[in-house]
Amino acid sequence: MPFPIHRPRRLRLNKVVRNMVRETYLSPDDLIYPLFVTFGKGVRKNITSMPGCFQLSVDETVKEAQKVHALGIPAVILFGIPEHKDERGTEAYNAKGVVQKAIKAIKDKVPDLLVITDVCMCEYTSHGHCGIIKNGRILNDPTLELLAKEALSHAKAGADMVAPSDMMDGRVAAIREILDTHGFEDLPIMSYAAKYASAFYGPFREAAESTPSFGDRKSYQMDPANRREALKEVVIDIEEGADIVMVKPALSYLDIISDVKDAFDVPVAAYNVSGEYSMVKAAAKMGWIDETKVMMEILTSIKRAGADIIITYHAMDAARALNKS
Ligand code: PBG
Question: Cα(204) to centroid of ligand 1, in Å?
Fold first, then answer.
């Protein structure tokens, strides 16, 4: 009979002891902050469903990047909202596109901040899907060429890492190959390896103006009911050359993060997505939860599950809280 010999409360008696036996530590170093880059100048447009997040023109993006860096957050991930969208998402691989300009501008002013780019077509296509469409179908192989071109254009603009989020089969290999043949063999790829067809992306689609004009993303993103399939997706991406693999969303998928961490030796990233963020913001606004405490608990749980890196809209608030404590 363990009790009264075993009393786990002994190690919870006071803060000093609790800190000594704490298993999981969160640091600003773990975080990546997403930024939405739009066209124009002096633009800082509220994203209604994501309080505290904005669509920013390139000049404003640089200012935001400076704040991120000052808080000790090592990296940002850039999403683009182009002025024009078309069937083939040509702005995605335009050397003068919003993301390409933002990469240069950030690297110029804040060279130590790691600039990661989201590589996908959905923000740039008129139909809002992540690939090329023919007869209502999202075509896999012809999309790879465009994704590779997009990744290369980000690399040429000075990106430090590319992160394909489209879920087309074979895209990591296609991107690795084009990068290597153009002298970017040292540029890492963080793949959105296990990305689910999730309703938690709702607010992001307002932010990035990327809601599909018809249908949904279920023919390329994963079924939320599947667990083992995530490991298959991750194996394929690692074999194709992914340096970091991501699980997305994070909070409803902590089991997947844990599985991936246990099964592989590569760093694991988790994307604490827009809907997860907006729910916290909304409940806090209603006065129903303590925003900072809930945020820290969520981020700690994602790290505890096995994430080495967390992409989160809470990054600046979390860094402020961590820097204070
Ligand atoms: C682009 C992309 C999406 C997100 C990141 N990259 C949206 C989607 O797949 O529909 C979602 C991020 C978030 O919800 O915070 N494919």
Answer: 6
CA nearest neighbour of 106 among 64, 70, 44, 162: 64
Q: What would the pLDDT profile of 56-69 be if each residue is shown by its tens digit?
A: 999 999 999 999 99
Q: Which residue out of 204, 247, 280 has the highest number of ligand 1 atoms within 8 Å of its CB and is therefore the one to mutate?
A: 204
Beta bridge partners of 57: 38
Shortest-distance atom of ligand 1 to CA 272 = 15
Amino acid at 83: E
Would you mind telling me the total number of residues written for the chain in this entry? 325
* Distance from Cα 12 to the centre of ligand 1, integer Å: 40
For 21-324, give the CATH class: alpha beta
Active site residue 248: yes
Q: How far is the CA of 198 from the centre of ligand 1 (A)?
A: 9
Q: What is the 3-state secondary structure (H, E, C) of 230-273?
A: HHHHHHHHHHHCCCEEEEECCHHHHHHHHHHHHHCCCCEEEEEC
Spatial distance between the Cα atoms of 263 and 269, rounded to a whole number of angstroms: 14
Q: Using CA atoms, how far apart are residues 89 and 142, in angstroms rounded to an integer?
A: 13
Predicted model pTM: 0.97
Please tell me the predicted confidence (pLDDT) of residue 61: 98
Q: Which residues surround ligand 1 with Cβ inside 6 Å?
A: 118, 120, 122, 130, 165-166, 201, 204-205, 217, 273-274
Query: Which residues of the chain are modeled with pLDDT < 50?
Result: none
- Whether residue 167 contacts residue 196, with contact meaning beta carbons closer than 8 Å, is answered with no
User: How far apart are the C-alpha atoms of 99 and 49, rounded to whole Å?
Assistant: 23
pLDDT in tens, 74-122: 999 999 999 999 999 999 999 999 999 999 999 999 999 999 999 999 9
Which residues have C-beta within 8 Å of that of residue 183, sequence separation ≥ 6?
A: none
Looking at residue 209, its pLDDT comes to 87
Q: Which of 35, 201, 273, 314 for mutating ligand 1's site (highest number of atoms within 8 Å of CB)?
A: 201
- What are the structural domain ranges in the chain? 21-324
Which atom of ligand 1 lies closest to the CA of 204?
A: 14
